[in-house]
From TrEMBL:
<feature type="transmembrane region" description="Helical">
    <location>
        <begin position="107"/>
        <end position="125"/>
    </location>
</feature>
<keyword id="KW-0812">Transmembrane</keyword>
<protein>
    <recommendedName>
        <fullName>MFS transporter</fullName>
    </recommendedName>
</protein>
<feature type="transmembrane region" description="Helical">
    <location>
        <begin position="55"/>
        <end position="76"/>
    </location>
</feature>
<feature type="transmembrane region" description="Helical">
    <location>
        <begin position="83"/>
        <end position="101"/>
    </location>
</feature>
<feature type="transmembrane region" description="Helical">
    <location>
        <begin position="223"/>
        <end position="248"/>
    </location>
</feature>
<feature type="transmembrane region" description="Helical">
    <location>
        <begin position="309"/>
        <end position="328"/>
    </location>
</feature>
<keyword id="KW-1133">Transmembrane helix</keyword>
<feature type="transmembrane region" description="Helical">
    <location>
        <begin position="146"/>
        <end position="166"/>
    </location>
</feature>
<feature type="transmembrane region" description="Helical">
    <location>
        <begin position="20"/>
        <end position="43"/>
    </location>
</feature>
<feature type="transmembrane region" description="Helical">
    <location>
        <begin position="254"/>
        <end position="273"/>
    </location>
</feature>
<dbReference type="InterPro" id="IPR011701">
    <property type="entry name" value="MFS"/>
</dbReference>
<feature type="transmembrane region" description="Helical">
    <location>
        <begin position="349"/>
        <end position="374"/>
    </location>
</feature>
<dbReference type="Pfam" id="PF07690">
    <property type="entry name" value="MFS_1"/>
</dbReference>
<feature type="transmembrane region" description="Helical">
    <location>
        <begin position="285"/>
        <end position="303"/>
    </location>
</feature>
<dbReference type="InterPro" id="IPR036259">
    <property type="entry name" value="MFS_trans_sf"/>
</dbReference>
<feature type="transmembrane region" description="Helical">
    <location>
        <begin position="178"/>
        <end position="203"/>
    </location>
</feature>
Amino acid sequence: MKKLLNEIRYFRSQPHNFKILVLTNLVYAFVLPVIDIFVAAYVMRSSNDPTKVVIYQLTIYTGIPLTFLLNGFLLARFNIRGLYSIGMMLSAVSMIIMMSLKELNLVGIGMAGLTMGMSFGFYWANRDFLALSITSDANRNYYYGLETFFYTIIAVAVPVTIGWFLESRGTEHAAVKSGYLTITVAVFIVTLLASIVCFRGNFKNPEQKKFIYFKFHPLWNRLLVLAALKGLAQGFLVTAPAMLIMLLVGKEGALGTAQSIGAILSAIIMYIVGRISKPEDRVKIFALGLSLFALGAIVNGALFNQTGVVIFILVLLIAKPLMDLAYFPIQFKVIDIVSKIENRSEFAYILNHEAGLYVGRFTGAFTFLLLAYMVSNEVALRYAIIIIAMLQLLSIVVAKQIIKQGNELGKTTETL
């Protein structure tokens, strides 16, 4: 209890905007498992076609960079809190579009996907800038460890609750759709609450400078390579657990339970790692996360049954947060350095970073679709994850090079 009180006091000692941003993202975290897992499960249940799930994901990832660009122009006219809130609210709008479709054709899926992409675009563009502006390199491990701790705790309750709620509705299409509509209403309410919390912050817009560039410092170009490697898995990994569960098990209840098993352990690990780790530990954390992901992918591919899926999801619950906990501070440190060297707005790098992610996401999704159409859905789900996990191991080498060069340049920028 004494240690818990110390942690609460430590959080309270943080700046006001730090606490508000964490609390905003804490409320919105109740929506993220629904978006990441159960929308894909709905598409899979209604169409029984994994390629439609991946196409839905690809339209999401197409909408994100376009909205990042639009957000840059809108920041000159609108407060960042409003754009941030719009991003959260649009996730509910996208679900409403999806639920209103009488038939899941590619046009309807595309519309819902692009709307969700706009939601993510407004959300992540502004969230990334705010996280960059209110944190320093010294407390970014703590910030992301704290966020990941909350996200993972919520990932215990939300997936299993929603999964068994949907399964309790029965197997009739009308009953299942009614259940998804109820969840959509709940998502809308939660996004509204998150927006209210967001408006309690005193967040400032980025300084209005030019934010579209095509040539960057060599250090930033290396980070774009790292971003593309990160995007490879995002191309379909967000929805892969849902596709695997619905294909090999077939029920949302099992999907929710599989997502929740082990999440408490993961949350505790993430908080401790974020709280006690130092900036120099980031490559080790990153390497551990990537290695666990590769191990889980190999086990899933080798077994390709219910046991393999559960092991893969359990490993992913720890691997993904570890990768994110290390990746974002590395990204922000590089932005700190190159923005000073090139005298550019931080938002210019946040926008350009999304382009690097998109290249990776498109490549990852295209790899899955190519295997699905040329061979089979089963082969795609079984082997595409392994291919991408092996390629992602290259990120360890790239991250080491970035940190080494960043440390050398960082000494120079301190005198700028």
